Amino acid sequence: xxxxxxxxxxxxxxVDRLAIxxxxxxxxxSCDITEASSGEDALTIVKSQSFDxxxxxxxxxxxxxxxxxxxxxxxxxxxxxxxxxxxxxxxLLQAAVDAGATDFFPKGDLSPRRLALRIxxxxxxxxxxxxxxxxxxxxxxxxxxxxxxxAVVSHDLRGPLHAISLACEALREESTGDALRYLGAIERAxxxxxxxxxxxxxxxxxxxxxxxxxxxxxxxxxxxxQAAADHELLAKESGGKITAQIKDxxxxxxxxxxxxxxxxxxxxxxxxxxxxxAPIDISVDRQAGEAVIVVRDKGPGISSxxxxxxxxxxxxxxxxxxxxGLGLAIAKGIVEAHGGKVAVASAQGQGSEFSFTLPLANx
Length: 363
What we know:
Layout: E1 5-10, H1 14-27, E2 31-36, H2 39-48, E3 53-56, E4 59-60, E5 63-64, H3 65-74, E6 81-85, H4 90-99, E7 103-106, H5 112-172, H6 178-207, E8 216-219, H7 220-230, H8 232-237, E9 242-246, E10 252-255, H9 257-275, E11 280-287, E12 290-297, H10 327-337, E13 342-346, E14 352-359
Parallel strand pairs: 1-2, 1-3, 3-6, 6-7, 9-11
Antiparallel strand pairs: 4-5, 8-10, 11-12, 12-14, 13-14
């Protein structure tokens, strides 16, 4: 740090101000020092000037350094603050941290070298925090812009997709042979587009904490059986089979039934996509005050390198079998919104096991 830095020293004791100034000058730190003998003067000065660091005493006329720090932070001033004070009790130091202090330095040990190091350290911390805040603000703005675009695009796309579906239904009654096959392809493409729009909106809602849940006491075993039945035909078409294993018929959970079915649908759909006709088992059990639902398949499994990423948004494994890479991320978001957890265990050639927990209704 070779540039000339600007310091505001806030202390009502002239002798202490002279001692601090002398220590800074002896340290060789290249700086310009402005002095304020009261908190009121300091607050006035910072409104018209900017500084790289504030050296703030605690005992000030009519106020305290902690109160001044709170006012500065409350007004949005994030200049690094080093408390230079004769008091060093833990309660005061904790209060100073809570008020926004960056560092401390005891008046009883005005070592020029150590004081300069504390000032440099505080400035670096302050600049890092400022850069982090700018990055967060930029990311937040980009996220809002993305969500705005997504909302407009999804609204504008759903109308034409609905019109395509209606047109296909009307044409189906008049079509035969190849025309019917082409209509089927159009309908499937339209349905995939609608699912993609729904997934994008769901993922955005989860990220923004706006996912809606309608909780109630529901039977986890009944949900598992329905999910298995809903996917039975798809499993048969791929040469596989889905089996529901219910260990306890009275596993009542506090959950949104439709959302849990959505989670199971995403997990089963993922298994059907990758298991290549291998059997799929779904089970529900109770452990430590929670319901544990597991979807197991006998497919090719997941490599150890890919395993940490399976719940990441937009992530595809080596197979890249269609989709936007949102299904598992959405399942994770829904489960966590219920207060549950998701997990995966797998090894190549040994299948995969996806599990999630839900709170019991009577725990």
